[in-house]
Design brief:
By secondary structure, the chain is α/β, with parallel strands linked by helices. It folds into two domains: about 5-120 and about 200-215, 3-Layer(aba) Sandwich (Rossmann fold); about 130-200, 2-Layer Sandwich (Alpha-Beta Plaits). Helix content is about 30%, strand content about 25%. The protein has helices at about 5-15, 30-40, 50-60, 100-105, 140-150, 180-190; strands at about 20-25, 45-50, 65, 75-80, 85, 90, 110-115, 130-135, 150-155, 155-160, 160, 170-175, 195-200, 200, 205-210, 215-220. α1 packs across α2 (about 30-40) and α2 packs parallel to α3. It is globular and about 50 Å long.
Length: about 220
């Protein structure tokens, strides 16, 4: 998706924001456009970022930031996704911010996802791996467990070194394939000792704003 279409999707998401709101600020290239557009809109809001990168962008854009201690409930979060199913279940976390993204999403009254149409899939797992954030000590154990279930898994690297999340943890990328039951698999992964959380976001998104060659459309959860 071109940067201009990303920007248009971000602009459409601004319609979800009102003065006085607490806004969850997503992570990724499309979410970055939203953060910049939100800053330019000069709305009287406060943001809670989902990563150190989104924090930096928000500060540059002049968005006032707050914390869960001050505002434990968020009015609306705007974030991207790596896959979106017809039921609006998601795979997120290819950028490595999945744990903070999930914390912020579950603290939100409304979650708005902005993506390009290439992220739409018939079933989750069609294109993307499942990112799993893992305490470093537990990585060998988690690798063994998920590979016993199905597919292949590997520790994510960046520039030849193990990737480290903003939380100081490792990311295991699990090539699971098609996911028949995202809700059950999400719970199964969460129950593994050493797993902080996974990139499966079942029953989280309320709507998705999708940008494509034919324009922008909005999908609502049934």
């Amino acid at each position: 998706m071109s940067d201009e279409l990303k920007r248009q999707a971000a602009l459409r998401a601004l319609a979800e924001i009102r003065d006085g709101m607490i806004v969850g600020l997503g992570t990724g290239s499309t979410a970055a456009h939203f953060i910049r557009e939100l800053g330019g809109a000069r709305l009287k809001v406060a943001g809670i970022p989902t990563s150190e990168e989104s924090r930096r962008l928000a500060e540059e854009a002049g968005i006032r930031l707050t914390t869960f201690k001050e505002h434990p409930r968020i009015d609306v979060t705007v974030d991207g996704a790596d896959e979106v199913s017809p039921e609006l279940d998601l795979i997120k976390g290819l950028g490595g911010a999945l744990v903070r993204e999930k914390i912020v999403a579950h603290a939100s009254k409304r979650v708005v996802i902005i993506v390009d149409e290439s992220k739409l899939v018939d079933r989750l797992g069609q294109k993307a791996v499942i990112p799993i954030e893992v305490i470093p000590l537990a990585v060998p154990c988690v690798l063994l467990l998920v590979q016993q279930l199905r597919g292949e898994a590997r520790v994510r690297e960046r520039d030849g070194l193990p990737f480290v999340s903003d939380n100081g943890n490792s990311i295991v990328d699990w090539n699971h394939g098609i996911i028949d039951d995202p809700t059950t698999l999400e719970k199964q992964l969460k129950a593994m000792t050493g797993v902080v959380d996974s990139g499966i976001f079942a029953n989280v998104a309320h709507c998705a704003i999708v940008a494509g060659g034919q324009g922008i459309r909005k999908l609502e959860r049934a």
